[in-house]
Amino acid sequence: MSTVDLEKIISLCKRRGFIFQGSSQYGGLQGTWDYGPLGVELKNNVKHAWWRRMVYERDDMEGLDCAILMNRLVLKYSGHEYTFTDPMVDCRKCKRRYRADQVDPGEKCAEGGTHDLTEPRPFNLMFKTTVGPVDDDSNIAYLRPETAQGIFINFKNVLDSTNRKVPFGIAQIGKAYRNEITPKNFIFRVREFEQMEIEFFVKPGTDDEWHARWVEDRYNWYTQLGIQPGNLRKYVQKPDELAHYAKATTDLLYRFFPERSDENKQFDEVEGIANRTDFDLTCHSKGGKLVLKDGRVIPNEHAVNRLTWFDHQTNQHIIPYVIEPSAGVDRATLAFLMDSYHEDIVEGETRVVLRLHPDLSPIKVAVLPLKKNHEGIVKTAKEIKQTLQKKCGWRSVYDDTAGIGKLYRRQDEIGTPFCITVDFQTLEDSTVTVRDRDTMAQVRVAIDQLPTHLAERLGTA
Fold this sequence. Notes:
Layout: H1 6-16, E1 19-21, E2 33-35, H2 37-56, E3 61-64, H3 72-77, H4 80-83, E4 85-90, E5 97-99, E6 121-124, E7 127-130, E8 140-143, H5 148-153, H6 155-162, E9 168-177, E10 192-202, H7 207-224, E11 232-236, E12 248-255, E13 267-277, H8 279-284, E14 289-291, E15 297-299, E16 309-311, E17 316-318, E18 321-328, H9 329-340, E19 341-346, E20 349-354, E21 365-369, H10 375-391, E22 396-398, H11 404-414, E23 418-422, H12 424-429, E24 431-436, E25 442-446, H13 450-458
Parallel strand pairs: 3-9, 21-22, 21-23
Antiparallel strand pairs: 1-2, 4-5, 4-6, 7-8, 9-10, 10-18, 11-12, 12-13, 13-18, 14-15, 16-17, 19-20, 23-24, 24-25
Helix pairs in contact: 2-9
């Protein structure tokens, strides 16, 4: 199992252009990160792999892309205005703020001794803004703290426009914003992030079965894309851990912190699969209501539609139950980076290699000329690169900025599955050397056979 820690991943990401600190030109902005040339490719590939599996390969799913800014009432009746809080404490000595459940009272304070913490108080995590030119309470809006609510309020729109029948799902990938008290651990906990989220609508009574099916499907997605099973766990939340609206939740935990001595603390959430029952559609439905954890009931006096589905078998309007697989794009990307990182000793030197699944690799093929100032070699290499990029659709690069050995190491470090070397023999017999990233094995392949040869190994990439 991979035991790489975050420090090595952070170093690699900055050195090779995967991820940079946000606003670094001005000292940075805590909790924000910018994805560089390779990072944006990797992140896009994670999203594409998810979308292909969840939407294209299923017959019971529709896609959606909702606005980030929504009517304030959406987040009122979802309960976010009332309950989307974390407990916050201040240290009276060093003046720093912490999430109460993430700071040890016996921890050393920068001002000496241990922290002198205030009593916990609720802190709403939503970013507040105003819509329009007048800055007053009537124009308050929020940056959405999750993508789910946009799906719920569009349930009837999707249902009516697609003629779907329950069970079916709505999938969305998009940005969300949470004003985290203490963002930390690289891209693991941030203030601006992306979610890959599904709301899957089922008949009441079938929800337990569907929940179990989604847990298995989502677990398998990660392992099929290369996550080692020993680094991924299913955690069934205990009754006292469940959100008040949830009937059941299973978290998928990844080994993000292998350096911790307590193995249980090495794992943290990469995705949650919740059975939300009919809570959300009831909250947002005309004549519905929001029931808070403390027992307060907020009748919905503003919704314009009843969010129900007509079951022709029973001739009844029903409010479906919802199974919600919700994954963080950034956390999934981090998990794939960590799990693929390996160090080998080759000829007495350390070789860093990202053994990313081909579907996820930022670059699929690198074309390398043996001699960068030889007209025939360069011309042929560039033609191969263009063919693989344009006709085959694989992200390909041409690189002549170092010797072949260094170029191989560079591509290994960024996870490129195959390197193609164009040499003098190429000019004689129209064959090239194809090198495999993982085994370092090299074979000669005819140029006109490259698309077939690589397709067998790159799959859907």
